[in-house]
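Ticket #4471: structure export looks truncated?
Reporter: QA, pipeline team
Priority: medium

Steps to reproduce: submit the single chain below to the structure queue and open the exported record.
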Amino acid sequence: MPDYRSRTRPLCREELPRIRASLVPLLIVLAPQVALSALQLGVPVLAPAVIAAMGLPPEAVGALAGTMGLGAVWLFAANRGVTPVLGPWRALVSACLLSVAGAALVLSGIWVAALVGAATIGFGYAVTAPAGSQFLSAHTPRRLWGTLFSIRQSGVPAGGRAGRAARRRAGGGL
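Actual output as written to the record:
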């Protein structure tokens, strides 16, 4: 069994400014991760109320959630034409703007617009992982990658919790 203690060393004072400087890039990628995860995971939670307001049958919730998942999968597959072209920062900003527009379309009360909005939210969500990873790796010391990438990825369940809290605030329980 390898002894990992021999490879690690305690932090020294000279490294603290560099570590503090790594927190800004972490927050830059963590905020969209949490927000877009909240949208991606929150829309299906809020969908029964939205679908009922449109006068559609309850099974339309699955179509809305499925369309959002399809949008995410499609962009995961096509991402090589997005993040490398825009760069990680512009890709993250674009993802946030797309997702907000998608949420507005979901809440429009028009079924076709809601489906387009759901796919758009999926597009935005799919950008956060590759663009966030690329941004974080370019702006943080390699030594901190494990910790910072783990914290960034914890934004997904934090966003899910935020989506669940939105349902609770809307009076839906859970």
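Status: closed, not a bug. The export was complete when the record was re-opened. Leaving a note from the reviewer for reference: Residues 22-169 form a domain with the Growth Hormone; Chain: A; fold (CATH 1.20.1250.20).
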